[in-house]
Design a protein that fits this description.
With 201 residues, the chain is of the alpha/beta class. It is built from 5 helices and 12 strands. The longest helix has 15 residues.
Length: 201
């Protein structure tokens, strides 16, 4: 697989920015809104936004169970901010009725770094990303409270886990798609390409 097809879950959030970043990382990027479109992609990005709204819309569009099935079956997936929450097996402080896709053995705390007016940027060293630290944009960002034995911690900020990987699932608390630095998207596209090369999709 030389040019993987990577979808962006286009229910809510900063979809366009992810499409641009994926294209810059040498993927064919397309929005995903319907269950049948999941069969046409090699990997999926779950963007930032509002995790409760994404959860509700995923049910409304008939996507929640197909997404869970795809992740269980090993579809490479990358979640940013709200997407990280959606990939968590457990939310520490869920809103009523809030559900996740799951796939990463972690417990997350919503809005852990503060509300909208407390958003900030910070340099973050991310394992697997060469060169200078990544500029992390934290907007009502969650953090990871704890992880299971199979989860690799890729980055911390002020003692809190902000990037993780478990198998073909990647997640960050921050928004690399907003900075023009496409190295984390390139890392994910490489994960997708490697998965396709293994013949296990």
């Amino acid at each position: 697989m030389t040019t993987p097809v990577v979808g962006v879950l286009a229910l809510q959030g900063d979809v366009r920015e992810h499409l641009v970043a994926l294209a810059a990382a040498d993927a064919v990027a397309r929005p995903v809104r319907r269950p049948e479109e999941l069969a046409e992609i090699d990997g999926l990005v779950i963007p930032g936004g509002e995790s409760t709204t994404i959860s509700k819309l995923a049910h409304l569009f008939g996507l929640m169970e197909p997404l869970r099935a795809c992740v269980r079956e090993g579809l490479p997936v990358y979640g940013t901010c709200a997407g990280l929450i959606m990939l968590a097996d457990k939310i520490l402080d869920p809103r009523s009725g809030q559900e996740t896709i799951g796939g990463i053995d972690m417990i997350v705390r919503r809005n852990a770094f503060g509300r909208q007016n407390e958003s900030f940027e910070a340099a973050v060293d991310v394992q697997g990303v060469g060169g200078a630290p990544v500029e992390g944009v934290f907007i009502r960002a969650p953090w990871v409270e704890s992880v299971g034995a199979e989860v690799e911690v890729l980055a911390e900020y002020e003692g809190h886990i902000v990037a993780v990987r478990q198998g073909d699932a990647l997640a960050t608390s921050f928004h690399p798609e907003l900075t023009g630095d496409h190295r984390i998207h390139a890392l994910f596209v490489d994960m997708v390409r490697a998965r396709g090369a293994s013949g296990s999709l």
